[in-house]
Design brief:
This protein has 10 helices and 9 strands. The chain has helices at about 5, 20-25, 40-45, 50-55, 55-70, 80-90, 105, 165-175, 195-200, 230-245, and strands at about 15, 95-100, 115, 120-125, 130-135, 155, 180-185, 205-210, 220-225. The chain has a 6-stranded parallel beta sheet with strand order 3-2-1-7-8-9, sandwiched between helices. It has a 3-stranded antiparallel beta sheet with strand order 5-4-6, with helices on one face. The mean pLDDT is about 95. The structure holds ligand BJW.
Length: about 240
């Protein structure tokens, strides 16, 4: 089966991305041997229970990552930029759903973008939900400007056991897309890991682009493997050739 035989330029595209697409921009993945979960226990830093038990430890973990994201050398790479360009030329429309909390897709030109696991550069009040932007440290002593609560400010990220964002919009797009592409994600975390089955059930052609076969690789009709900065621009070039043919 090939891309050309299975999709047409009028088909809507849904793209799911994970930490692998930002690896070559200098940000760590989670489950690779040098990844974040090799150094931190999930239950200590990425659950609502951890924040309730030891907010300073959780905020410390995210403050370091907020500072890293602001590093001058962390820039969108060729894969982010290729996806930004795709949105500009694909007639059927492109929805980019990222599990990543960095801002590299927006800086790479993507506009129709859902951050299903939140955004590191935003701070949220755990009490009233008020959202504020800015990448400085979050401290337990902070007071929410909206509701006045103290000690409730947290990163605007989705921890294990919390509901990912904009699931209704994502579900509708998966139900009507002609092409579903998963890039740089290991397929360990649900509900994102189930999107391929959802899209395929509704008739979409499904493609995995990753460094190596993910946990769910056999669920995709096509797989291409290598560094994102190489395989994503090539894939996007093929889509552009389809539009021009
Ligand atoms: C490259 C590359 C290069 C490297 N080029 N590629 C039992 C069964 C099923 C589900 C559950 C279960 N028990 C609990 C659950 C639910 C739970 C879950 O999935 N747990 C699993 C561990 C089993 N999920 C949840 O709790 C979620 N909420 C939820 O389910 O709510 C209920 C609900 C149900 C149904 C519908 C709706 C709602 C919430 C999950 C929140 C995840 N949060 C995190 C942290 C966010 C904040 C932070 O960053 O700190 O999100 S965890 C972490 O994993 C992060 C990521 O977004 C997520 C996915 O990781 P990702 O992106 O795949 O990274 P890696 O490292 O795993 O993979 C990188 C890949 O890139 C690898 O394959 C590399 O090879 C590749 N790569 N370099 C291309 N250069």
């Amino acid at each position: 089966m090939s891309l050309r035989e299975n999709i047409s330029p009028s088909d809507p595209i849904v793209i799911l991305t994970g930490a692998g697409i930002s690896k070559e921009s200098g940000l760590q993945t989670f489950r690779d041997p040098d990844g974040i979960w090799a150094k931190h226990k999930i239950e200590d830093v990425a659950t609502p229970q951890a924040f309730a038990r030891d907010p300073d430890a959780v905020l410390g973990f995210y403050n370091v990552r907020r500072a890293q994201m602001g590093d001058a050398e962390v820039q969108p790479n060729a894969a982010h930029q290729a996806l930004g360009a795709l949105e500009g030329f694909w007639p059927g429309g492109v929805l980019l759903v990222t599990q990543n909390i960095d801002d590299l897709h927006a800086r790479g030109g993507s506009r129709n973008l859902i951050h299903m696991h939140g955004e590191l550069a935003k701070t949220r009040c755990n009490e009233c939900g008020d959202l504020v932007g800015g990448i400085g440290n979050i401290e337990t002593a902070m007071t929410c400007a909206q509701c006045g609560a103290t000690g409730t400010m947290r990163p605007h990220v989705v921890w294990f056991g919390e509901m990912p964002l904009e699931m209704d919009r994502i579900g509708a797009a998966l139900g009507s897309c002609g092409l579903f592409v998963s890039i740089g994600t290991s397929g360990n975390v649900y509900p994102a890991a189930g999107f391929v089955q959802e899209a395929r059930t509704h008739g979409a052609y499904t493609v995995e682009l990753n460094l190596e076969e993910s946990l769910g690789a056999s669920l995709f009709q096509e797989g291409r493997y290598g560094p994102a900065t190489e395989i994503v621009p090539t894939f996007v070039d093929e889509l552009q050739a389809l539009v021009q043919s």
